[in-house]
Amino acid sequence: MTPSQTPPSRAVVLAPALLMLAACGAAPPAQTPLSDAALAAVTADAGAPKDQLARQIDDLFTQPGLGETRAVVVMADGDLAAERYAPGYDADTRFISWSMAKTVTGVLIGMLAADGLLALDEPAPVPLWQRPGDPRAEITLRHLLQMRSGLRHTEAGDPPYESSEVRMLFLDGRDDMARWAEEQPLEAEPGERFEYSSNTSVILADIAARALTDSTKPEARRKAVANYLQERLFEPLGMTSMVPEFDASGTLIGGSLMHATARDWAKLGEMLRRKGRAPGGEQLVPSRWVEAMVTPSPASPHYGFQTWLNRPIPGAEAGQHPLFPDRAPESLFSLIGHMGQYVLVSPSQRVTLVRLGHSDSAQRPPMLQQAADVLELYPVR
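Given the sequence above, the corresponding structure tokens read:
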């Protein structure tokens, strides 16, 4: 028998039959019954069909190819709609922020600006840049918040140990991270282009410390920032688990190292959804600042002030966007951390979805599509 005479495969033979069954309205295969744990994760007043919500959250934990989901919290209309943890994790587990910390730093800067201690469009108060003739004097606080300072900060290097982030966090910059980041030269005009950078968020944290204390002593700097965050943000929100980390110089590691429970990350997202208000109505950060945080930068439609936006990127190829503008409102924004940490906030749906875990670069896109399935259960209002 010649190759051209090879019998058709079973799949080819069955395909027409399957199509005919589909055309006749044949029922799809039955879904696996939900476990008691999956159903128990959803509250009675979830704001969405309980079984559907339980199913979509269960898929985040069980579907192959999405990585490891360790915690999910859903808030709807300000109430707990769902909460679930993987084995080994629970409501008391503190999860690392990675880059979700950047949005906390953006809120910190906003509170200081509201207090009159910082100005958004004046030269950033970094002493190293104020020497005569230093072109970095043109960098403003707005430029830093929108990741368009122009500084030579390469977030992901090849090899990795050559990246600015790794050098600052773990190598030659680790004892005084802000100074290392501030010493880097310009590689573009301030304001000209977007370049995501953990170094930039540490510079913002250093600026916050300088605004709160004149002391250069590490312990004084650490206490000034920690106390301010505790009294003005964490305590009013009931974020009792939050543990921010500081370097040896007393600078908040504002780009990557904060720890909190999934519930407390949800509380932060809800505060931003309410435009800076605590549950009791107290305005913790001005609503206009939160609006600025979620306004696209001139250099990046998908980024605001230390916050990712669900806005389309003109000309971007499929898979390049860090969120899903084709599946959720453009008003949605997010805290995003390394390896799949997300606080997804959708004001028009009145929903905050926290997903924490471990997903590599190949697993994150399908995991986000599953998170979008959860959000799509809630109508736009």
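The chain has a mean pLDDT of 91. Try to locate this feature in the token string yourself.
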